[in-house]
Amino acid sequence: MGELRLMKGNEAIAEAAIRCGCDAYFGYPITPQSEILEYLTLENPEPITGMVVLQAESEIAAINMVYGSSACGKKAMTSSSSPGISLKQEGISYIAGAELPALIVNVVRGGPGLGTIQPSQSDYFQSVKGGGHGDYKLIVLAPNSVQEQYDFVSLGFELAFKYRNPVLILSDGAIGQMMEKVELTDYIPRLSDEEVIKRTGSWATHGKPESRKHNIITSLNLQPEPQEQHNHHLQAKYKEIEEHELRYEKFHCEDAEYVFVAYGTSSRLCQKAIQLGRAKGLKLGMIRPITLFPYPTNPIKKAAKKAKAFLSVEMSAGQMVEDVRLAVNGKRPVEHYGRYGGMIPMPDEILEAMEELIAKVEKKAQKKAEKKAKKKAEKKAKKLAKKEKE
Amino acid sequence: MITIEDIIKEENKVFSKTKLLTDKTFSYCPGCGHGVAHRIIMEVIEEMGINEQTIGVAPVGCSVLAYDFMDVDMQQAAHGRAPAVATGISRVFPEKYVFTYQGDGDLAAIGTAETIHACSRAENIVIFFINNGIYGMTGGQMAPTTLVGMKTSTSPHGRDLHNMGFPIKITEMVAQLDGVQFVTRQSVHTPSAVRKTKKAVKKAFENIKNKKGVSFIEIVSNCNSGWKMTPVKSNEWMEENMFPVYPLGDIKG
Amino acid sequence: MAKIRGAVVVDVERCKGCVICVNACPTNVLNMSKEVNGKGYTYSFMENPEACTGCMSCSLVCPDVVITVYRMKVG
């Protein structure tokens, strides 16, 4: 077992970056994620591992520094919170278009606008439905513990390089700020320049040797035909990611009649709600998407065969619920429960919302059964009357 | 009697295109200064033998396609963000020769913050700033460096001081920053100007070698299409109108 | 006395006819063609080749790098 340490979620991200051989972090202060930049500047890894840590003049500059570093084949990352992530969207679109392997962390806070500094999950649409301009997808990882905050940094880089695609860790202010024990991994040394060139020489900019053509990092095509081709290529890549990189977790789903769908902080609250509900004899379960792209559409679809209804619990006005509905495709009721603007729902509220849904579904089922029984009785009576007549 | 054929022999060749320019024909308008600026930069890189260590950044603007012409590793950057991108490159590859090649709209409007802060941090890069007082790529709109009274497609009656304010002399601003080692303003419209500019370019790349921080080279250039003049006339107009506002010469270092 | 003779070769198909080289030539060697190249541009040529000293002024200012310059000592 690795070293155990009690850490804040934000600190776990920073420590993971140092330990997984990250080459560069570029950040800008914003609550509730400033500890990432603070921890890294305090730890000052450059003299030890060679990892560059730089406070940029803006979120925009930070993401473009990431662009420059990752276009050199280096492991580069940035982090911010919602308003700052909005500023980064141009750069994220360029990174996706130029197919660069970058890691972006969003420790979400309540919005819109300057909003609040408290946790929220209202950046779901921004994360999985685009955010910036153009047809692109990020690989989106949604941690629900400080341990996962830590683990997803190295996983994020792995996926980013595997697919040459930006990866987003969609965290929130609760996970970023809370303290939990983390099992740390051993230090992985940064790749040497020679290793970086060997690994990324076919596409990255390292300085052009005689032996190859110049490498160009761009997202520009002045002609529409090659741009359409490039989009075809990107879509094929996203399909491959959907086929291979789906991650999700089922919780008490074996006999569940009513299923929560929740990620991040909400999924932990749902776990408690399930516990409370089960104590009352309710057969509750949960599907927790760990990757939000790719999304566990099929597992939810499959669960809809057995489950009677779904409740999407989010700290938003209802964003992910749309994807749950798409997966269930009208076969079962799907509702949303959420608190937002920085508010966190309590497990008993969540259970209450589920009980309301259950009551609604059962009432409907009862009505249906009554109607059926009535019809049956009428039919029987008719038949009897007919017989009597004869 | 010496014939032309006698002169045109390999051993008599004194000027030919640097091998660091690709065979692609420049996408620039006839007479545009970009081509000369591209050539000088690539010549210096070739002469210094640093091409295998050079990474260039060309953001949005007419020169966004510079990567098609410059035969070194290149990155295209978002509008205004080249100094941030160059920072990202230079920080992870501190031994490389990293340069940006930016227009006036890019460097002095949308990318002002990135420009100022990269200079302030003393990033070990060269910034080339091509100032023709207009947005060329998008069809000749007013730029931050458009002269007062100058007509563009978005100042069709001439840049009006009361509405649009003054042109920015960002090169003089940048010279105030401690992180900047060398600041000069040059042009590429005459043979002697080209020679001076080339000297400055060489000095700038040598500054990278000696880790001296930012070298900032403004090249005041023409945009005959945007200015709606012949190339020759545009160069004359530039001397008469641009140079008084943007005087040539070394400003720092 | 040794005399310097020069000559230039213009890559006709890449010339865009901007005339900047013609203006830059100190010995009035160059002029523009009456014909056009494949792209429809007139191109520069040595109208007065005897006067060329191979000083490279034209090639230094040529925005499209289409001029190659040769120079030799004669006599």
Structure characterization notes:
- The complex is a heterotrimer of chains A (390), B (253) and C (75).
- Chain A has 390 residues and is of the alpha/beta class.
- Chain A contains 14 helices and 15 strands.
- Chain A has helices at 9-19, 34-43, 46-49, 59-70, 82-97, 124-128, 146-163, 173-177, 193-200, 224-244, 264-279, 297-303, 321-328, 347-389; strands at 4-8, 24-27, 52-55, 76-80, 102-108, 139-141, 167-172, 179-183, 216-217, 248-251, 258-261, 284-289, 291-293, 309-314, 334-338.
- In chain A, the strands form 3 sheets. In chain A, strands 3-2-4-5-7-6-13 form a 7-stranded mixed sheet, sandwiched between helices. In chain A, strands 10-12-11-14-15 form a 5-stranded mixed sheet, with helices on both faces.
- The radius of gyration of chain A is 25 Å and the shape is elongated.
- In chain A, 51% of the residues are buried.
- Chain B is built from 11 helices and 10 strands.
- In chain B, a hairpin with a 5-residue loop joins strand 6 and strand 7 (141-142).
- Chain C is mainly beta and 75 residues long.
- A two-stranded antiparallel ribbon of chain C has the order 1-4.
- Chain C contains 2 helices and 4 strands.
- Chain C has a single domain (3-74), classed as Alpha-Beta Plaits.
- Chains in contact: A-B, B-C.
- At the A-B interface, helix 4, helix 5 and strand 9 of A face strand 2, strand 3, helix 4 and helix 6 of B.
CATH class of chain C: Alpha Beta
Roughly what is the average pLDDT of chain C, rounded to an integer?
96
Report how far the terminal alpha carbons of chain C are from each other. 7 Å
Amount of helix of chain B: 25-40%
Q: Look at the structure and name the CATH superfamily of chain B.
A: Thiamin diphosphate (ThDP)-binding fold, Pyr/PP domains
Counting helices, strands and paired strands, the structural category of chain C is mainly beta
Q: Per CATH, which architecture of chain B?
A: 3-Layer(aba) Sandwich
The tally of domains of chain C stands at: 1
The percent of residues in helical segments of chain C reads 10-25%
Largest sheet of chain B: 7 strands, mixed
